[in-house]
Amino acid sequence: MCGGCVGTEYPERGTTCLEGGSFLLNFVGCAQCGRRDFVLLGNRAAGLHGGDEIVTYDHLCKNCHHLIARHEYTFSVVDDYQEYTMLCLLCGRAEDSISILPDDPRQMTPLF
């Protein structure tokens, strides 16, 4: 992975968890060839590991195929919530949790 290709290493992305794609605003250019172009996705793998769905892939320079970053996205169901995480040098780090119930108990206001 290459810290010279990104503006900020592992930027905080809040709840934005990407299963595919790239955070191009953080890509300053390839440290190997010096060009700033689109980023290719390579070596994509998806599978289950202990009940969690894990998707991994590489961000590669479109021109010279230099490895910019490795991306990891996970999805799991814990109790009544869907849990998402993302960790990537280019795209950043993020976590999200969404209730599988029609009304999220965490969002409900007490009546009294």
From TrEMBL:
Gene3D superfamilies reported in the protein's UniProt record: Transcription activator, Churchill
Example GO biological process: fibroblast growth factor receptor signaling pathway
Pfam families given in the database record: Churchill
UniProt keyword annotations, A-Z: Activator, Developmental protein, Metal-binding, Transcription, Transcription regulation, Zinc
A GO MF term: zinc ion binding
Family statement: Belongs to the Churchill family.
Protein name: Protein Churchill
Organism taxonomic ancestry: Eukaryota, Metazoa, Chordata, Craniata, Vertebrata
Designated gene of the protein: CHURC1
